[in-house]
Amino acid sequence: MDLSTSASFSSSSSSSWFSGIVRGRSSSVKMANKNPAAAAAGGADSVSGAGPITAKKQFRGVMFKYGPKAIQVAFKTGDYKQQVIFIGGLTDGFLATDYLEPLAIALDKEKWSLVQFLVSSSYSGYGTSSLRQEDSEGVVLLGHSTGCQDIVYYMRTNAACSRAVRAAILQAPVSDREYKATLPDTASMIDLASNMISEGRESELMPREANPDAPITSFRYHSLCAYNGEDDLFSSDFSDDQLKQKLGHMSNTPCQVGDQVHSSSESYFVLLVSTLFFPWVMSTFQIMLTRKHWLIGKLCKAMGGAEKVEIEYGNHSLSNRVVEAVEAIMSFVKREGPSGWDDPWN
């Protein structure tokens, strides 16, 4: 998902996507509790007495428009001033991860709302958008996968609005470039995308084989796949100085970085490590885990000492470690925020 809307929703505008979501809380419709048993199981907000979950994979809340575009729709559980805004990764939309359901319940008990929202890059739209295109107090940004780079980009380009962000959680930051490098046609497709951009065709679509999952423009493909592209923020081959240049501004905001360790299903960080430099007794899998653990430490250091949380045996979306994921998020959310953050729309 990409966090930037259009030229009319610039970073300096008070009508940005962010202000639209934060202000959306004031127009919430109070909903009556029609299922007391479900409310008891799913928590209860202080106003309506109804919990955020009515049944499995059924959320109670308010859906509202936060901008003029058809896709600019958000869904909020609870009616609290403090909010956690979830930002998904590529192909994500509403209900992107399994831990959102128990997270909504846990947040409600602490008088926090959970907000999920759609932008032009949601679902299959990521290929024709960019980080630039989608342009309160108590707001915590929670990014999953590629949603992590959306947060980093937003916090760098929206200085005024970023003061409303109390903290940021980066869950499973990824290097799409290193993953794409394992595919056989990526190098030639990067060359094609570069040529198209140089010819002024950055908005034209790449051949279908470049990205079978969804249509993708040459600009977006280059951003995701090329070295030092706009989306290339978490790659393992960057030096400490390069990572600090990309992530150093996050040091002004309390951050937590989620690291899934010992995960055989985590394949997003491609670790091209020569076995000549490691004892032969170490398996390739062990080398990958060691390298990834080291990389997360580098990312935290580049962000000025962000907190690292390790969840053992978790997969990329933490669908197999839902309880641990919610515990880690809630522990961070419940801490006292830094002094000086505010709501720039007050």
TrEMBL record:
InterPro entries: AB_hydrolase_fold, SidJ. This is Uncharacterized protein.
